[in-house]
Amino acid sequence: MTPIQNIIVDSGSKHLRIERPESFEDTKIGSSIACNGICLTVLELDRTSFTVQIMNETVVKSSAGKWRNGDILNLERALKVGDRLDGHWVMGHIDRAVRFIRVEQRGYTSYYHFELHPADRQMVIPQGSIAVNGISLTIAQLGQRDFSIALIEHSRKNSNLPLLKPGDLVNLEYDALGKYILRKKI
To answer: Which of 97, 94, 115 is nearest to 174 (CA)?
Structure first.
């Protein structure tokens, strides 16, 4: 997690300067970095920050249109061939931005509830995979108009989800395998 340092908007896109975490020391121009689940390309780079560009189509489809200076983003570098895969395949191609509804605490587990667009209901199954702001998660509960995911303490400490307020937008990416299977059936 790291903050946005500066946002520049022009007619066709948005440029973001983002604080560069120490663990991203091997980042170079052209590297792919997922920012709240959106796969973006590094255009400029220095010791303390990097710059990416977000096209208008992505701004409209994702939560990026609401981002402000100082907002904290989840960051993840691209997976290298041979790396261990923890979670499911997350491509960085956002399907939809939806609203956070509420958090419900049950013991040591936090259940985060999000709205579910009716057209996307077929993409979500109980105990299926979903990426929320780029985090590979398991669907804990599925309602008619919402779904929830469960976060353990480690995930709460290492993501920006605890910073959410009701009504905030998050980026969703549905499970790629599920999307391909669904398309094959159509």
So the answer is: 94
